[in-house]
Queue: 2 jobs
Job 1
Amino acid sequence: MTDRSPYQNGVVQPLLTDLYQITMAYAYWKNNKKDDIAVFDLFFRKNPFHGEFTIFAGVEECIKFLENFKFTDQDISYLKTVLPGVDERFFDYLKAVSAKDLKVYFIDEGLVVFPKVPLITVEGPLPIAQLLETTLLNLVNYASLVATNAARFRLASGPNTTLLEFGLRRAQGPDGGLSASRYCFMGGFDGTSNVLAGKLFDIPVKGTHAHAFVTSFAGISELNGHHMLPFRGGSGKTADIVELSLKWLDTISSHLDFIVEETNKGELAAFIAYAISFPEGFLVLVDTYDVLRSGIPNFCAVALSLHEIGYQAKGIRLDSGDLAYLSNKVRNMFTLVANKMGIPWFESLSIVASNDINEETITSLNQQGHSINSYGIGTHLVTCQKQPALGCVYKLVAINGDPRIKLSEDVNKVTIPGKKNIYRLYGADGTILVDVLMSASEQSPEEGKRLLIRNPFIASKRAFVCPTKVEVLLKLYWDKGQVRYSLPSLRELKERTCKSISCLREDHKRQLNPTPYKVSVSDELYNFMHEIWLSNQPIGELA
Amino acid sequence: MTDRSPYQNGVVQPLLTDLYQITMAYAYWKNNKKDDIAVFDLFFRKNPFHGEFTIFAGVEECIKFLENFKFTDQDISYLKTVLPGVDERFFDYLKAVSAKDLKVYFIDEGLVVFPKVPLITVEGPLPIAQLLETTLLNLVNYASLVATNAARFRLASGPNTTLLEFGLRRAQGPDGGLSASRYCFMGGFDGTSNVLAGKLFDIPVKGTHAHAFVTSFAGISELNGHHMLPFRGGSGKTADIVELSLKWLDTISSHLDFIVEETNKGELAAFIAYAISFPEGFLVLVDTYDVLRSGIPNFCAVALSLHEIGYQAKGIRLDSGDLAYLSNKVRNMFTLVANKMGIPWFESLSIVASNDINEETITSLNQQGHSINSYGIGTHLVTCQKQPALGCVYKLVAINGDPRIKLSEDVNKVTIPGKKNIYRLYGADGTILVDVLMSASEQSPEEGKRLLIRNPFIASKRAFVCPTKVEVLLKLYWDKGQVRYSLPSLRELKERTCKSISCLREDHKRQLNPTPYKVSVSDELYNFMHEIWLSNQPIGELA
């Protein structure tokens, strides 16, 4: 547990909740139900982004919330103003409440998860378990949503593309930006532009410069006579990088088919200034004026100058235009320079793309063919444009050992009653076959032994399954104040996520019409559930 | 300024930025540009939600950020690990940087604003002005987006509907939830379910109970013999509320056409428990089992019992089903009870609706006809489903007094160069006519005097305008460390927002195909801008 991030947003506290949790707690207390033992399941009903899987995230934050769950005197004073007429003794009770009376089960953070499977099960005194609802939902919903989004971008772009999260400026608030950086890294990204996220969560931070840097230079004269750059290796020799760059610009103009007079000299000055500052990390934005007639010529001129004094440039970034066309065109120009000048590495300079990219853009670029090595992705990644919320819910499934069901006109919204165990069954090829929900009292499935599983809602859908491996999904992480499992570092979570996704069959992961993963119940749980359902549902009357 | 909220998320700090701001600052410093005086404009290019207006929000947070803008030793240590090879003296410079050298102009928080108009103009040393970019964008983008969304819900629902924000559980992180509560209140909502937001920002908090409260009771016996409720007024007399409720259930069954045996007795117990806890605030969720055959009968029985001992019930909440049909049906049942029992107020009990409501749902309900008094709105409001990000940008427009322009293939992305003043011109009827951008050196428009205004991009679009009132929009809020204007309380901002929207012509506000509001430039700025544009844009060659 030494790897846990020390950070948690200070606003994660018991008052970060809906008022109705407090009013309900009061009504439970007032009606002598404070010692009733409740079981709540936290789950979602539908995978996001028209996909068929979700990455579960937010466990560490939930555990920290449980550890710190305590109403302060100031909280109580405020609540008294909001709830006049409430029995004073309730506030004494509330003041003493902690998560020490609860057992909380979690699925491991970073695993792929599916609809209707409890991600968290909370068991304990009814008012206390109730009071956790909103905060747990808040901590799980966005974390899981954005981790899933990141994983989808990773699947779309393939394993060899560098993915950078650039979303802070468009995120839904400061903390939205931080969470995005953290959970995108976990979901499969390689780094972030967000410096604070880098510091707090040990994520690689990346970035070069913006258009403003380029437009801040109007011409070479604005370098203020600052032209000299030392040769790499510390020989003490220096070179006039302006002189070199102007020479190279001239040299390559015929090869790259541009007119020297038409390249923007402010842009050239900016690139030189950047090279002087970061000779080892020369990667610049080339679309401020005109990519092919100014940006790339200027870049090549400076990169060749750097080469002459021992440095190897990194590459360029495109932030507008037709990314497939431009990246291919740029790659051709790099190849041409590589060949003409006999500098092989010039061919494989990095091309970063970063203009309003979403999952579909990447797929479309792949179909068209492109030469991009890396994407910088902001808005659509962090705000989850395609579906900005994951609909996790928190439902009461048992009280004092009696199962409870929430009915609905919409069958999909009916809850699966009772305290349950969840098992993930693996096939012989190592892929996961099915998640099975079973009553807590049932024996767990056994490897190599046939098991009858059922669709929870459709009687005719039944199957036998014979697992090669059985994994217990819900684990007792929080045992009345004790944390029973270690919480991995973010890098470990990233590996776990990657591994979990790799166990999922390809057809569940594809972008278009993926096959739904089967979530099933045991025969016993099926019968139990439907008995309770019928006993709670009055027979309708058509009128 | 005594009204300012003391709260600011601790993560709002100089490191909450993109790494490239730091690398650029270094390159400016390294190339002797640290004392260049830059002007940056922060603006957006397109109103959100297919609308034609935006509410500007986040000013107070930006000011607090400016006040606290200071790199700590710990920040510097971290940056050194991220940027090896950077000249040590730069970090000494960075350590000394503050916002005290800047002038920052803001439009008043809460005003309606439009594309291309600078909402913030930052003027000062290039590296320092640059370093603010990401954080300012982050603080303005979501705040303005969600305030605008709230304002649109208010316009759709009309002035007499109570609007409550219920979004915490689905918000993009803890802070997303808090910001949503704050800026939705400003944008036109009446309250929130978010207790911490209530405490921090003095927003009315609302809430009753969830389905879990209802399902936690299986029958009357679970009231544990707790049946007595004192008469209102402190006479000391008490009544058995279970006995009363069962009596009333029987009495009204023939009027409301339900079967007493089919009403859910667990639900009745839950309602009684809630009434015992909150006799003065009896508002319950009626759709756990069956709205018309169980929820409403049980509600009416308990409400009539409360009436018998002096209390007036508040109403019901619907969280599923056909809200138009159900709300009308429920209103009819209330009217029937009001008439049969001679209790006039029963007819006007509150009907709250809260199932996945968005702007279109409200419009559609209005078209169908409904009987809803209040909406509780979560997911779509706070995550801004229709468009989860506002695309504010931060562009360099001048340096050392020289104008700078950012060109683009997309004309809409070309920036308007130079330091500017912004004026809002009003017509005789008090509505706003046009926002005009003028060069900082120009004389301001005068009331009653004709002014030539131009579309910034289309030469043929010109008009004369004669304003009745002229308002200066960009104000010097932050004058080198001094805050020159008071920052209103949240309630004052709410009033300002409401007033500002009321000055906007109806056709700009309508949901379907609203008329674009005109943002114009003066003739002088038009000519100035196009001269610079042409001098920076090479003539293309068709090939």
Job 2
Amino acid sequence: MNKVNFTYFLFFITLSIFCQTKDFTQFVNPLVGTKNMGHTFPGATTPFGMVQLSPETNLQVMFTEDGKYNPDTYKYCAGYQYDDTTIFGFSHTHLSGTGHSDLGDFLVMPTTGTLNLEPGEAKQPKSGYHSQFSHKNEKASAGYYSVLLDDYNIQAELTATDRVGFHQYAFPKTDEAHIILDLVANIYLHDDKNTWTFIRVENDSLITGYKQTNGWARTKFVYFAMQFSKPFTSYGHKKYDKSKYNGFYRKFDEEHNFPEMAGKNIRAYFNFNTSENEKIKIKFALSSVSTEGALLNLNTELPHWDFEKVKNETKEKWNKELSKIDVETETLEQKESFYTAMYHSMLSPIIYEDVDGKYRGLDQNIHTSNGFVNHTVFSLWDTYRALHPLYNIIQPKRNNDMIKSMLAHHDQSVHKMLPIWSHYANENWCMVGYHAVSVIADAVAKNTTDVDLNYALKAASNTATVPYFDGLGYYMNLGYVPEDKSSSSVSKTLEYAYNDWCIAQIAQKANNTDAYSTFLKRSKNYLNVYDQSIGYMRPKLADGNWRKEFDPLNTHGQGFIEGNAWNYGLYVPHEVDKMIAMMGGKDSFSKHLDKIFTTPIEDKYIEHNEDITRDGIIGNYVHGNEPGHHIPYLYNFTNEPWKTQSRVRMIVDTMYSNKEDGLCGNDDAGQMSAWYIFSTLGFYPVNPGSTKYSIGSPSIQSAIILLENGKKFTIKTVNQSSKNVYLSKIKLNGKSISTLTIDHDDIENGSELIFYMGAKPNKKLTE
Amino acid sequence: MNKVNFTYFLFFITLSIFCQTKDFTQFVNPLVGTKNMGHTFPGATTPFGMVQLSPETNLQVMFTEDGKYNPDTYKYCAGYQYDDTTIFGFSHTHLSGTGHSDLGDFLVMPTTGTLNLEPGEAKQPKSGYHSQFSHKNEKASAGYYSVLLDDYNIQAELTATDRVGFHQYAFPKTDEAHIILDLVANIYLHDDKNTWTFIRVENDSLITGYKQTNGWARTKFVYFAMQFSKPFTSYGHKKYDKSKYNGFYRKFDEEHNFPEMAGKNIRAYFNFNTSENEKIKIKFALSSVSTEGALLNLNTELPHWDFEKVKNETKEKWNKELSKIDVETETLEQKESFYTAMYHSMLSPIIYEDVDGKYRGLDQNIHTSNGFVNHTVFSLWDTYRALHPLYNIIQPKRNNDMIKSMLAHHDQSVHKMLPIWSHYANENWCMVGYHAVSVIADAVAKNTTDVDLNYALKAASNTATVPYFDGLGYYMNLGYVPEDKSSSSVSKTLEYAYNDWCIAQIAQKANNTDAYSTFLKRSKNYLNVYDQSIGYMRPKLADGNWRKEFDPLNTHGQGFIEGNAWNYGLYVPHEVDKMIAMMGGKDSFSKHLDKIFTTPIEDKYIEHNEDITRDGIIGNYVHGNEPGHHIPYLYNFTNEPWKTQSRVRMIVDTMYSNKEDGLCGNDDAGQMSAWYIFSTLGFYPVNPGSTKYSIGSPSIQSAIILLENGKKFTIKTVNQSSKNVYLSKIKLNGKSISTLTIDHDDIENGSELIFYMGAKPNKKLTE
């Protein structure tokens, strides 16, 4: 090492010691949410990483043999269920916390003994290649997962770089060690899911290939390069295709040591001899572009075989992101819940480009990102609410990249639409609204994006005027979505109206008064679905009449998607005051909120909704799903704001924990966790697109938020405890404030916010 | 026009008049070979063009409902049968003259009246979208095809640039004009052929998309851009998929005016209003890379809508290629047969790259050709015999590009093999041998390639040493392919031995004495499958014994592929003299040849071979298939060379014509036609890889061959007629020659060759 390098070395060592003495990863438990319906995965990934290398505890098919939907499908959105005792292998792509699913690509399973390529039944031990495991032999931490595969006495360890999964399998001594690569396995598997798969054995320790599926992502391509640390002694595959045609490949013994394997459904295997405790390592790189791209990613990100080094570097990457909010809490459990929520908030959106910036676009052409890092997995109906607002505080640069990814999606879209749910170079059209505009408006309002405003406005306006999109043509003509033309019409009308308000905000910043007035006018459309005579938002028909059949409690078929008129009907975040006035005023509204939280909902009202589960329900309030996430904060707009404080605290304490069942519903790509982070810090973005946050009840002792502008936003609480959930006083930079809002500027300016807490409400504190 | 431009203009006009006064395209009849088993297509294409836009007269499925092979499949290798009266549409990719098939991509059909997306049955008029047609309303010429679609009174015209098909449809007046784009249609269609198809409606007159198939090419991607000359008024599609899963696309009315259409099997349509005789034109560009590539090809090659201009330019491209051999013949029929053969010899291999040089490689990655034009469709077991030798005379630069394409194929091959049958970024493994080495050796011998010799040798040697390839491992170990391990073992042994001789020739030129001796030794392996006791090449078993069951006349299951011991057993082109000596000497060999031509083969011996048809048989000689193409020339190696002259003339006169049934078997990607061109000119490359041509019986009056070195090789005949088929004297550059061979240098030096003909043989002329 020369002198200059040594100086640099000292500088970075010093910097590193100075900047990061705390290990926040110790408070992350990736298993949180893996029991019941959290739909999180426990495996290894980097923050926002393209690879999510995680165990599958069961392999489901979506449709049973008689053609019926298999209700177990839903349980395995992320591939892993804590109550299971079986591991089928480790695959490389997973969604975190979604309520519909896909992926589970490239399942790798190490086995020993007589080769068995059939996965077998989870309920029947040794019925296939799967293995029993127990949680006592399982470790999950940020960027690292390990488990003992009991059936084979193989210790499996996983870590990852951004684009490369790194496996390490310690085998027993055997002449029959196998590594299975199952290309049939898929999450949300159905008969026609795989459209094509392809493996090339490049040499005795490197294979490449791709898998193409037709699932939630209609046409998904994932390319890979898989490098073994040791040459395999032989290999082969089994093809499960039904096609009568195999061309002249029939002249080969394709199934044994033939270096091209292809078909719709194939399982490959690679054989080894191992000595006792010999570790076989695998580097498994992904690309959306090509096998060439996957190899480039592999060689660039992971040119060595040092597993511990990657494990530590990935842990360090996580620590860097987690350290952006340094909280102190009363209990360890709270701290673990907090940092696990932080962890869950950074599992998606994921980067979606190769190290050279190339990525597959929505038009299926290969693009190169210019001035941004392309991302995918935008579950926007969920994440616009709190996750992207959170990013505007702790990840503004990355959020700006995400916005640019959305604009690229728009440019590549044949509909000229921003993403609804951006999914591996596909639009999967899940849920309602066009909430990318909210993400853009929020970033515009908070000055965290440098995109051209006119371009952003044009993209937003294009998106909001596609007549064949989900009732939007009717909405534009009639001012509401008619239920007889497009179901979930009230949800759509409310979400569109809010989205239009967002577009108006962008227009205002762009000084486009025409667009501003057009979309501001459209933002009032919520008025058109409010039935004054019954006091509920209600589905209206194309002829202007209210639909006769209507049950404001039923969450199915009543004009709302995954919600009912009682809760989803309160969705006017941009004009809460006007909505409250329209609904009879503050006191009556308070009473309605009380009723929501205290009237138990009957099973018959939720039985048709996979996404509404008992765990996440308080009365009629459904925390386990998104449309009500702002509801606890609505008391702030009434004469009883302290009820926000108690309800928020109740939800924080009862709906989250540091245990495997610590999520009361799908984490929804981080939205549930983002709600928790905001709410424990004491404020929440009720209306993304505005700079205001509504104050709730902080449940931390203190927090320091590191901002990208170099400043720190400090939150302190005085006298806070599980009993002292009410606000008695709030000081911002030493001055008492009387409203229950703070502004984004307060954060960005590096203010100090002190919450003084007590066991009883201070009823003078109002909005 | 300014003065300089005007001067250029005059210059080019003069040049054009000077260089090309003759129109050779008038002698081309693309319908030759469309009746019975020629398997040629009559549609529009440029020389070696990537688009072959041609009508389909029936849509076949490969397997009937009970799972059996549909024997009609074979008839439709090129999509068109002259005896049919129905047209189903015009698709953009076709193979010319093959005996197995694929392609037929992007079938376009114009219709009127009530929309019908079902193709219907050919036998039932008006049972689907197909139309009746008659040959009196049909025109086919080089680069142009037109037909009246009787059912709709639509005049269809087709032409093409290298990468763009150009359609022109003259409609009647109607409010119900449709253009159907059928993505279900495929040549050699089976249930699982389409793996995925995708259409994007970019705007009201442009669509893009792709089709991915699993056929003879295992994983073929073809991307397209389709531009209409007039906006469609509406559009839609029908999806025929059986998949239970459609994600959230179900929220759309996907079938009507929804600009993304995707699935395994879809048919799309585009609606128009037309006035009487209104012409709707379509530009349809292909790419192996992406829709972006297809659009680039479209905009680069065809930026205008002038149909006549393209038709004329394409005709001119053909004329330029056809003019490379300027023949005079006794009859117009002969001239038409000759130029049609010339035409057929340039329908493949085809260029396979976008205008920017990008192409899909065998590894499925996107490559850019560097210093060559990438080609595909190498049907090498057929074309190494005479087609590539022909190219070495009239297309040496392009042949060099083809060799470089083969080397790129090798580099991209996981097997590190040169192509066996290169097929749209796939290896389809059809037939036996590794004849790319012959093409390279022939070009090396004739100095028409500038590839690095060591690199070419390495690629050839790699190809010849892949142990799992088609019995090659056994061949390397035992010196022959054992029939009990790999069928068609004698054919394989003979072809490998010849191929090895070719590699030895490359090695010799590369001064690699080790490789030379290795492969020269291997080239003697034909000795190992000759059974002296019965006087035939015969299948041998792995234990060294001859197979007991053996019938030297049967073309099925007797160690030969598409041939029998009588004819295929004479395949030792590199050591004909030694073979003849081994088989008992010249006189006995002559008698065997006589027997071949005079003993009628019984049906039972050929019934299992689709590729051997009665039309192409003389006694036991099968001209309609390749393995015997050198046989008529083998008399030259005996004491009765004049029998070569009469037999060649007999074959030229009886096995070819200028009529629709003018080919006696599959044209085999141009090999049959190349045989005709050589044989009518009076010589034939019996042993590609050597510079010698064996002289037969010229049937032209004269020929001038334009060489790329600027010289002209002139052939004249004196006293030649259908009766005067025997050579009495040969003069090369004014000097009599007594051998029946000429050398490639004689051609390249621009010699004059005069054949003096008579009605009786001159028995003094011998080899």
